[in-house]
Amino acid sequence: MFIDIDCHQIKKYNQNAFGDYFTSKRYPDEGKLIAVLSDGLGSGIKANILSCMTATMLLRFVEKQEIPIRKAAEIVMNSLPVCKVRKISYSTFSIIDVNDEGHARIIEEGNPEFLWIKNGEIMDPPFETIQSKTFQNRCMKSYKINLELGDRLIFCSDGVTQCGLGNGRLKLGLRRDGLIELVLAKLKEEPEISSSELSRYIIRQTQNIETNRLPKDDISACVLYFREPRTSLIFTGPPFNQKKDADYAKMFADFPGKKAICGGTTANLISRELNRPITMDKEISIGKLPSCSYMDGVDLVTEGILTLTETLECLEAGKLDVDNAAGKLIKFLLDSDCINFMVGAKLNQAHYNPALPVEIEIRKNIIRKMATVLQDKYFKKVNVEFM
Questions:
Q1: Which residue, 212, 204, 210, is CA-closest to 10?
Q2: 35 and 128 share a domain?
Q3: pLDDT digits (tens, 9 = 90+) for 106-153
Q4: C-alpha–C-alpha distance, residues 151 and 233, integer Å
Q5: pLDDT tens digit sequence for 148-191
Q6: From residue 383, how far is each of 29, 308, 338 by CA, in Å?
Q7: Contact by Cβ (8 Å): 366, 262
Q8: Is the domain of 123 the same as that of 197?
Q9: Which of 227, 251, 275 is the last residue of a domain?
Q10: Which CATH number covers residue 104?
Q11: Per-residue confidence at 352, pLDDT binned at 50, 70, 90?
């Protein structure tokens, strides 16, 4: 079971920093994921510092496994000061620790109650209330739940449930009931919608509810979707041992998921060993990148180093809407959950050109950097095999 997770946010109107902070980390060796969403008091830089500090502390405590999740949450809850003016905590938080089997531990303090959706219905799981030893009016809820394929979890800051507060339509804001109605209607319309698309949808709808679409608070929505993984394979670069070309071509052909080839030499190898002709795209390429090609049984065929380099740059910058071969490769990657790279280790003399930038000379480094970005920023599972 794969955990598809994403979070989208918008800042309070006229602020330069997010007052909410989201952080998440996947642990492939342990088959688990930890995510934290924190809402800092107020908005702007001060709120950003408070929420960042809270979320980072919780993630660091739990990931080292030196402190159980409940103990870590209690430490943070008992340590957060109270604002002297507003008499409320400096930040609130939601934290989830879940493994690939669906066993989840969730703790919330101050944030709106999360949604657990199973078969189109809202679940009402039991919880334990833990009272703060430092502050009488502060407590947190602790949940232990077991998730199955198709289940979804939605966490949000109060910017979601309070959006539209005081306007003509929603004098009391969207509230939790309004969020439930909004999400269930979208899931009925698009049952397989991804976490990224659903979190973006929630943010768009909440912003539309606000007067003049100007958010009165920071708004954050984090979505987790438990489903079968979408696997993909990217073959790039000629293998070191040419005698194994037929074996590598068979590995590529037998892969059960989506497949892409990055590089003319690699495409020619697959074409030769599998007897599949390459068809060139007759359209004029946009910008500096060559157009894509086509091959039976392969979902995407692009040029190599230049396309990989631009793809990496766009992923790092969050520039995902690119109208060229790199844009198609970005979509291929982001539509996958478990991404496998087959990277040839043979030196390609075509890349040893003094006129070319240094950063595009070494394919291995590009793939390593791309794997890190896909894991840390886009929450993908990535496996790289050098050949």
A1: 204
A2: yes
A3: 999 999 999 999 999 999 999 999 998 888 778 899 999 999 999 999
A4: 27
A5: 999 999 999 999 999 988 776 777 888 999 999 999 999 999 99
A6: 12, 17, 8
A7: no
A8: yes
A9: 227
A10: 3.60.40.10
A11: low
180 and 196 part of one domain: yes
* Percent of the chain's residues with pLDDT above 70: 92
Which range marks the domain in which residue 19 is found?
A: 2-227
- CA-to-CA distance for 261 and 269, rounded, in angstroms? 10
Phi (first) and psi of residue 252, to 5 degrees: -65, -45
Give the full edge-to-edge strand order of the sheet including 139-146: 20-27, 32-40, 91-99, 103-109, 139-146, 128-131
- Do 10 and 106 have their domain in common? yes
The count of other CB atoms within 10 Å of the CB of residue 241 is 13
3-state secondary structure of 74: helix
Residues 15 and 144 in one domain: yes
Q: What are phi and psi of 253, to 5 degrees?
A: -65, -35
C-alpha to C-alpha distance for 19 and 377, rounded to whole angstroms: 19
Considering the domain architecture, whether residues 78 and 179 belong to the same structural domain is answered as yes
Structure tokens at 79: 């340590």
- Token pair belonging to 18: 């997010």
Q: How many domains does the chain have?
A: 2
Written in H, E and C, the secondary structure of the chain is CEEEEEEEEECCCCCCCCCEEEEEEEECCCCEEEEEEEEECCCHHHHHHHHHHHHHHHHHHHHCCCCCHHHHHHHHHHHCCECCCCCCECEEEEEEEEECCCEEEEEEEECCCCEEEECCEECCCCCEEEECCCCCCCEEEEEEEECCCCCEEEEECHHHHCCCCCCCCCCCCCHHHHHHHHHHHHHHHCCCCCHHHHHHHHHHHHHHHCHHHCCCCCEEEEEEEEECCCEEEEEECCCCCHHHHHHHHHHHHHCCCEEEEECHHHHHHHHHHHCCCCEECCCCCCCCCCCCEEECCEEEEECCHHHHHHHHHHHHHCCCCCCCHHHHHHHHHHCCCEEEEEECCCCCHHHCCCCCCHHHCCHHHHHHHHHHHHHHCCCCEEEEEEC
Q: Which of 227, 258, 279 corresponds to the end of one domain?
A: 227
pLDDT of residue 356: 47
Strands 103-109 and 152-156 come out as unpaired
Q: How far apart are CA 320 and CA 35, in angstroms?
A: 23
pTM (two decimals): 0.82
